[in-house]
Every structure is written in structure tokens, then in C-alpha cells.
Amino acid sequence: MDLTGRNFLTLKDYTPEEILYLIDLAEELKDKKKKGVPVDVLRGKNVALIFEKTSTRTRCSFEVAAHDLGMGTTYLDPKGSQIGKKESIKDTARVLGRMYEGIEYRGFGQEIVETLAEYAGVPVWNGLTNEYHPTQMLADMMTVREHFGRLKGLKFTYMGDARYNMGNSLMIVCAKLGLHFTACAPKEYFPGRELVALCEGYAKESGGSVTLTEDVMAGTKNSDIIYTDVWVSMGEPDEVWAERISALSPYKVTSEIMKNAGNGAIFLHCLPSFHDLNTQIGLTISKKYGIDDMEVTDEVFESPQSLVFDEAENRMHTIKAVMAATLGAEF
């Protein structure tokens, strides 16, 4: 399958076969890395990494993956470029496209990464926008398939705020790959109706399904995968904490939820997670609101059912696959 020159902006743009191909390639590259087999076939190429929102996993994944492929990287943090300030997105794209073979963007609106892709003339990869997080989806599906040996037919429940990048993207990838996706959240936190209708169409073709429910026990009953994310995203004002904690506390992933899902269920989280008080923000929130955890309890996070660190590692392997495939690497 030839994906050379393709952008990677949202999985709406990729067929189920193309998504599975990237997961297959990631597994091949992971196996080579574990065996010490070099894959530095893109020597002489360079990629630009634009981070308007900082990240541990996404930055490290792109940098290590690029290095393994033999490429150089330039990291542009929120203060490291004039993108959108003194220089337009369109002009930035045309400058970087002359210097680099590929561009990663992690930041705010989807329209920014779409504009970069329109004018760069080289592959552009979405490391996260407000609307979509496609590289995370590949890592999630890879982790699920490693554990269960399959994807099609599995029951996948996302708990919490399903309106933004994680809820949107998980619904898309599950619907395309034939999983039974459930968004378990307050009604006002459901994904948008237009995207739900699109994903219902994907699910009809794949044999999957899309369900939206406010009922925690019904939404998690016999689920194979329980997934959650932080309740307040980077860049959101502090004022939303009280609202989210009030609305989403019934959707915290607890041992009771995992028991309702079943002994074979796994827990996933894209990280970072507020599951204890070992962070500055965790301590601040605890003092202000009197809670010791948020979207998941420490008991679940540290349990054998939790595969969050396998999932985090797989970010690097799947991002390597995306760059290799879209830059035309041959192994």
C-alpha cells in the first residue's frame, strides 16, 4: 500500500484498510526495534515539529521515531516560531515546506493543521488539535489488538467528556474498524450530532455500532475496553474545573466500573492522568475541591488491567509508521 506524500490530519481521510496497514507497519517496526534491527532508511531527511501545546509523549515519540528512521528534527515550541503571530500559517507552511520533508503540528484548531497541509507541499501530521488526535488512535488500536488479538467486534467504552479530540477520534476509529463504541457521558458532553451520524455510517459498513448513553452501568456492562481522559484540557481556563468535576464525577473509572465491565476488560488512558496527588495540579485541585483523584482512581490506574504504559510506548511505534509510510520509506 503506497501512502507516500499523504497528509495525516484525521482518520476520516483514511480507509479501514489504510488504518490497519499503518498498525501492521507499526507492529513490524516495533519488532525490529526490539530485535535491534536498524531502520534508518530516511537518512538525509529532516522534519519540523511545531508544538503550540507542549507534550511529553507526542514530542518524544516524534523525536525518537524520526531519529530511528535516520532523520533530523527541529522542535519549535510555543515561543520558538512566529506561526500565527508575525507570520501567517500559510506563509509558515510555504517556508517550512522548502526546508523540511515533513511537518508535525500540535496545537489548537483543526483549521491550522489543514492550512499547513494545503500550502506546505510536504506531508503534514496532526499531533493533536482541538477536534482530532489521529496518532493517538493508532497507538490505542495497536494496544487493543496486541492484547485481544483482534479489533472487530470488541466493545469499547469512552467515559467522560466526549465532545472533543479524544471522544471524536475514538468514535471515528472504532466505527471504521468494526468495534462497538459507546460514549458514556452526560448528554451535554456527547459528541456532535453531525459527526455521530457520519460515524454511524462508518459503523454500518464495518459491522460496528455507535451508542451514546448517560447510564454508567449500562454503558460499561461487559465492555472489553474502558477508556478515559483528563477532564480539563490544556489551554482551557481554570473556571471550568468546578463545572467538570461536578458533571463528570459520576463517570470516574473505579474498580466497580471495571468489575461491571468484566474480568477480561482493560483500562486505557492517553495520559497524563490525575489518578493521585503526585503532581502540582493534582495537589492544587485536591486542596481546592477536596478530591484525591479525578477521571480514574489510583487503584484502577495501577491495576493489572491497566495497559496505559504499553499504550504510551506504542505512540512512538505508530508515529514512526506514519512518518515512514508518508515519506515513502522502504525497508
Structural overview:
The chain is an alpha/beta fold. The chain is built from 13 helices and 9 strands. The protein has a 5-stranded parallel β-sheet. A 4-stranded parallel β-sheet has the order 2-1-3-4, with helices on both faces. α7 (193-206) links the parallel β6 and β7 (209-213). It is globular, with a radius of gyration of 19 Å.
Q: What's this entry about, in short?
A:
The chain has helices spanning about 15-35, 55-70, 90-100, 110-120, 135-150, 165-175, 195-205, 215-220, 240-250, 255-260, 280-290, 300, 310-325, and strands spanning about 45-50, 70-75, 100-105, 125-130, 155-160, 180-185, 210-215, 225-230, 265-270.
Per-chain topology:
Layout: H1 16-34, E1 46-51, H2 57-68, E2 72-76, H3 89-99, E3 102-106, H4 110-120, E4 124-128, H5 134-148, E5 155-159, H6 165-177, E6 180-184, H7 193-206, E7 209-213, H8 216-220, E8 225-228, H9 240-248, H10 255-261, E9 266-269, H11 280-289, H12 298-301, H13 308-326
Parallel strand pairs: 1-2, 1-3, 3-4, 5-6, 5-8, 6-7, 8-9
